[in-house]
Structures are given as structure tokens and as C-alpha cells.
Amino acid sequence: TTEETTPPPPPPPPGPGKKRRRALSDALVHAWKQFERDLFTAERACGGGGGGPVFAFVEGALVAALRDGAWILLDEINLAPAETLERLGGVLESARGSVVLSERGDGAAVPRHPRFRIFGAMNPATDVGKRDLPAALKHRFTEIYAGECEGREDLALLVSQGVASVPNAPVHAIVDFYLAARADAASVLLDSADQKPQYSLRTLSRALEYVRTAAPLYGVQRALYDGFAMSFQTLLKHDSALVLERLMVQHLLKGTPLKAIFKAPPAPPDDTHELIEQYWVEAGDLEREDPEAAGRYVVTPGVRTHLSSLARAALLRRHPILLQGPTSSGKTSLVQYLAERTGHRFMRINNHEHTDLQEYLGSYVTDENGQLAFQEGALVQAVRRGYWIVLDELNLAPSDVLEALNRLLDDNRELFVPELQETITPHPHFMLFATQNPPGATYGGRKVLSKAFRNRFMEIHVGDIPDDELRIILNKRCEIAPSYCTKLVEVMRELQRRRQASRAFAGKDGFITARDLFRWANRKSNGYEELARDGFRVLGERLRSDEEREALKATLAKVLKVPVITESTLYASAVESALVARLDAAAASAAARAESAARDATTAAAAAEARQAAQDADDASALANAMAWTPAMRRLFSLVEACLTHKEPALLVGETGCGKTSV
């Protein structure tokens, strides 16, 4: 028999002042556990640091997602290092797969949350810098190919949503233009690097974003033309740009002449914008300046065209801008000019083949107290404070450094700093620009950027400065006679036509650039013979081949209508007595300044500095008297002295022991 049991009586209701117990939510439990870990870390830092740096293992995004049940996307997964991809094998092994943090000394795997999911994304391994995933890892994913959206109905749906706020937007005309532009891009269009342009949905969506933003101020037709010119046209060479312009007039403007849509837009109600070539660009916090009025910049018609394209692209302030063109075409100066006009802080990072990501993001350094502290890099400072930053010579930087910027270059615009474990959202005024020379044989070391990476930028082609504008710039900037300006430009074009075996005159985009002409013009030559001699000193004294030197002499004599330069008489005036006298005079002047500084010194440091200056003057005088003034030494000294006189940086190239350091 079984005994009949009665259920226990229900608990009595809570009395006055008592609360009913409730189960804590998962989110609250997780928050308390995270607080416990943070408190433990802070306790160790305060109690066991001993005044020195405190280090702790910080879990990365993958481990945090694995533990908390988040969904994680590994973007550009095929660019990760091989050792990183190997660690993913355990996570992808099964539905319970995980990783062991051996770096922290753990012996057990990280517990995997049942809601954790992992995704990967990559471009096909058919482009520059892209590689395929290892087969063993790739087979653990369920692979899905995402093709481009090319169907007319799909494109119409995308466009209609993109311009939903624009009244009477020509959706089907935009689709027709996009398909026609893609067809021409595959056959007749060329960008500034003589490559086929890459038009994608990102290009289309950015054009539509501009149309939505600009239509209320500029009108629908003007916004359509500007938006699609900004995204599709400005990266093309001149002839290809004309082809695309005809397509825009045909499809977007329905035959309306361009002159009919270009009119000055109304001014914003407040003084927060600056008018740049018919575009109102929002101003920054600094005082606005006019470099042209101050004499620091010469604005020619070609420069105004580039400024118009740049101001139009800067109108949105969201997307990175890449300026590509030959050396000395004014790419960086354009951005600096626009930054000064609009009151934005301008910063610049010069890339090279050994550029490290720390130069962008920052690194740990020793502070004034001897403690390790993180010093933010130029890019992090610009992102936080709303500066305008230029990544100069972009295609010289290593590919892995550039691809690390993908998150900032995307439309979500975020910068993750691993050392700080912080994701930074850019300041509203932040803008990123990049400049580069076209890749190829002319410019050594320049890499071809992947199509996916370049497509993240809005590109602007900056071509060579036309001859008539170059003459204007030389005349206004260097203040030399117009006839001299004409001759200098003629010499440059003649040298560019004479292709030599050396890279010194490597054709149209060779090393005879506008910078050389400015350096030559700033010598302030008096007469054509002196102009020829100064031209040879600036252009010819870096050449190592006798054939090239003779070709330069012949060109100078032909264009300037002067006798051929004889190198034996070029430095005849640099006699030993005159050189020694100038050195002695400089040493005496330095000694006098040092003596005066020693009398006026009020601190021990100032007195020590004065004594060092006097010692340097004595050393220079002794070196001058001990110098063997051979013809080669007199030539080298005269050339360096001319560089110092005209405030030019001098680069001495020669074999060891030839007197470079002594000079």
C-alpha cells in the first residue's frame, strides 16, 4: 500500500516591510560578474603595482563574443595572418568548439555560449593583395557567394529607397545611367592610372546620399549631376570624363545644358559655412584664412576646377577622398588650402615602405615620471578632435597597414585601437584624405591598391599643371620676369621629350617636376647666361652619366639661346682664397656672437651654450684652414653654399671618403 501524501501548505504571504524574492535576469548577473572582474583588476593594480606599470590580459572581441553569446563578423578574413587563422580551427570544429587561452595560462577552454555565431566575409582571391583561405579552414564554413546586384528591378528598388526623400527623383533614369556607366567602364573608360574604373553599389549609394543631402539647397538636377560626377567622373582621365559627362547629360539631365543648372546656391542662414567654388562647406573651429590673399597660394583656372571637385566631395564630410596624379601637381596643397579656408586643423602622415600601424594609432612611451603611457598617434588625434588628415603617398605603405583602416573607411566610420581596447567614433568635422602617384614603372615602389580598397575612397584625378598656368605660378610665386618663366617651362617640356636611359628624365612624369622649376626660379638669375648656369647647377649636378649631362647642356643652350656651358669654367670664380675668406668671415662672426652671448648669459645653461658656440666657431675655422681645396672640393662647396644661401635642403650623394661630411 502507498500512503497518501498531502502537498505542503503554501508559504505565508510576506509580512509588512518584507519583499518577495525574485530571480535575477541573465543581463544583471552578467553585469555583476563583469563588475567583480573589474574590481579584482583594480584591486591588483592599486595594491600590487608598486608604482610601476601594471599589465593584465585583456580578452579580445572573439573571446568576448564566444563567452557572451554575441554574433561576430570577421571582415576580410583572408587577410588575417596564418597563425591567427589557425586559432579559429577549434571554434569551427563543432557546435561546441572553443579556444584555450594559453597566453593567460588557462588549461580549460573558454565556455561557449549557445547563442554564439561566427561569420566571415572576404573578397575573391583574384585581386591585388587578396589571398584565398587555407582549404582546411575554408571547408569548415558554409560558403555562400554574394554576387553583384545587376538586375534592373533590384537596382530600381535600391535607388527608390535611396532617394525616397527627393521629390520627383528620376529612378529609372538613374538605373539606366548606372548600367551604361558600368558598360563603358568595362570597355572605354580609364582612370588616372590607365586602369578600368571600379563602379559598385557603394559608388551608387554614395552618389544617392549626396543627392539626398544637396537637393534641398541646390535643386534636384544640380544635385543629380554633382552627386554622380563626384562618385563616377572625377577619378577619370580627361577624355574618359567627357564620355561620362555625355552619359550624365543624356540620362540624368535629359538633355538640359550644364550651364542651365549651375547657379550660385543660397547662403546658409548662419555664418557656419564657407563658399568654395559654388559649394558651401561647413567651417571648423579655427580662424578662417585666405592663403591666396596672403600670397601663399596661386589659384589658376585648373586649380579652381580641382578645388570645385574637392569642395563638392567634402560637402558630405563622411567619406574618405583619394587624390591621384603625378608628382608636384599640387595634391596635398589643395587639401591644405581648403582646410585653411574652412578653418580646420591640417595634419599629414608621410607613408613609406616601412610604415607601421603605430605611426597611425600610437604606442606606449615613457612619460616624464618614467611610467609607461599610451601616446596617441596622429590618426587617433585627428579622429577624436575633428582634424583634417592627409595620408601622403598612400600606395607606399604596406598593404596590411592600409587594410587595417577598412573599418574607418567604411560607411560606419569607426576606429578600433587595440592598445586601448576602445572603439572611437569620429568627430563630426573629421575628414580623411589620401594622395598617391599612379603605380607603374615611372614611380618606383608604388603598389597597385586592391579594387576593394580603392573603392572605399571617392577618387579625384589631379593632372599635370598646364604650361600657361605653370608660367603664371612661377611669375607670381617666384617673382621673376614673364620671359624667364616661359623659358623655364620650355626647358622642362624639352627635357621631358628627350627620354634618357636614366630615370632622371623618365618622360612625362619623370623627375623634372614643377618643384625643380620653383627651385631654379628662386635662384633669381640675372641674364640668360646666368639662368643657364643656375639651371645646370639645379638640374645637372645630380646626374651621373656624361651623356645625360651633355643632353642637358644642349637643351639649355638651345632654349635659352646661350653658348654651351663648359664645366671647367662653371666654378672658376670659386677660387681657394675667396672660399677661405668667406669661411673665416663666417667663423669670426660666429665667435663674436658667442662672445656676446657669453657676456649676456644669465644662467649656467646659457653660458654653457655660448661656450659651445665659440668652440664650434673655432673648429670651423681650423677645418677651413686644413681643407685641401681641389677643384672637386671647390665645386662641392660652391653647390652646398648656394643651397644654404637659398634655404634649400641639400642631399650629398657620393662614395665614402670624398669629403661630404667635411663640407
From TrEMBL:
Q: Does the keyword ATP-binding apply?
A: yes
The record's subcellular location field reads: Nucleus, Nucleolus; Nucleus, Nucleoplasm
The segment annotated Disordered runs over: 1-20
Q: Which Pfam families does this UniProt record tie to the protein? A: AAA_5, AAA_lid_5, AAA_lid_7
Name any GO cellular component annotation: nucleoplasm
| Every Midasin AAA lid domain range | 154-255, 469-563
Under Gene Ontology molecular function, one entry of this record is: ATP hydrolysis activity
Biological process, per Gene Ontology: ribosomal large subunit assembly; ribosomal large subunit export from nucleus
Keyword Nucleotide-binding part of the UniProt annotation = yes
Q: Return the Pro residues bias intervals.
A: 1-16
* Alphabetized Gene3D superfamilies for the sequence: P-loop containing nucleotide triphosphate hydrolases (3.40.50.300)
Its predominant location is: nucleus
Q: What keyword terms does UniProt attach to this protein?
A: ATP-binding, Chaperone, Nucleotide-binding, Nucleus
Tell me where in this chain the ATPase dynein-related AAA domain is found.
Answer: 55-141, 320-457
| InterPro entries the UniProt entry points to | AAA_lid_7 (IPR040848), ATPase_dyneun-rel_AAA (IPR011704), Midasin_AAA_lid_5 (IPR041190), P-loop_NTPase (IPR027417)
Q: Which family does it belong to?
A: Belongs to the midasin family.
Q: Under which name does UniProt file this protein?
A: Midasin
Q: Which organism is it from?
A: Micromonas pusilla
